[in-house]
Amino acid sequence: MRAAGAARTLVVMLRDVTAHLTLDVRAPATLALALAVATGHDADERLEVTLDGVPLTPREVPDAHGTRLHVLDAGPGTLVVDYGATVRGRTTTPGASEADRLRYLRPSRYCESDSLGPTARAEFAGLAGQDLLAAVSSWVGTRLAYVPGSSLPTDGAVRTLLARQGVCRDYAHLVVALLRALDVPARLVGVYAPGLDPMDLHAVAEAWVDGAWRVVDATTLAPRSTLVRVATGRDASDTAFLSVHGGAADLTAFRVGAVVDELPDDDVRTLVTLG
């Protein structure tokens, strides 16, 4: 029995994430990497970049909503990137300004909410808040089949719905588009996802409901409470883990790791915020 007044043990969630990339740079290029955990996390990090074995030092460029880009100029050769972080505890997701809420109501390249309005209103009439998020998550999850390699990088929400299959970004795009069509601000987030199988970077949706950003993951492949934010934006065009500008580079190896000290259960009917 605990003695009266005895100190309580505070259990802090620990998450370890890693990413490894190998690129064949064929022509001098500027590379932008979105692999680092977003600002606000209590994290110990390491980032090592080499070109043909010679260390390079990328410059960190802040982007929207805590996204941290690491940008470097690389000549031809074999570029190797290794990132790792230990994340202690959870962080608070910032709120949304009026400009944010308006921005994430608009159609975007991969989330054609203007085209999906009739579908959204027919399927989810009368629903709001927590009930709406649960309904959209379940509807998308049951309408689509998760099939690796089934979609193109240029596919948006409309094509995903017609094809009835896709990967995590396709699920997230469709969720975002349906919610925006119902006047709910929604955006896409790239995350590390402990419990994901097969392991990779993951994409989920966030919706502004009851005064906070709530996570929606129609794939249900990883517990939402363990996800670690990396990049946030309108859709995949804002959240790519790698962008190549002004040259040519081929991705030849890519590995991701994400573990948590204890993997919790999840329920799509529960409101969850990233942290």
From TrEMBL:
Pfam family, one: Transglut_core
Span of the signal peptide: none
SUPFAM superfamilies per UniProt: Cysteine proteinases (SSF54001)
SMART domains, per database record: TGc (SM00460)
Transglutaminase-like domain residues: 160-220
Alphabetized InterPro entries for the sequence: Papain-like_cys_pep_sf (IPR038765), Transglutaminase-like (IPR002931)
Organism domain of life: Bacteria
UniProt xrefs under PANTHER family: BLL5557 PROTEIN, BLR5614 PROTEIN-RELATED
Protein name as catalogued: Putative transglutaminase-like protein
Phylogenetic classification of the source organism: Bacteria, Bacillati, Actinomycetota, Actinomycetes, Micrococcales
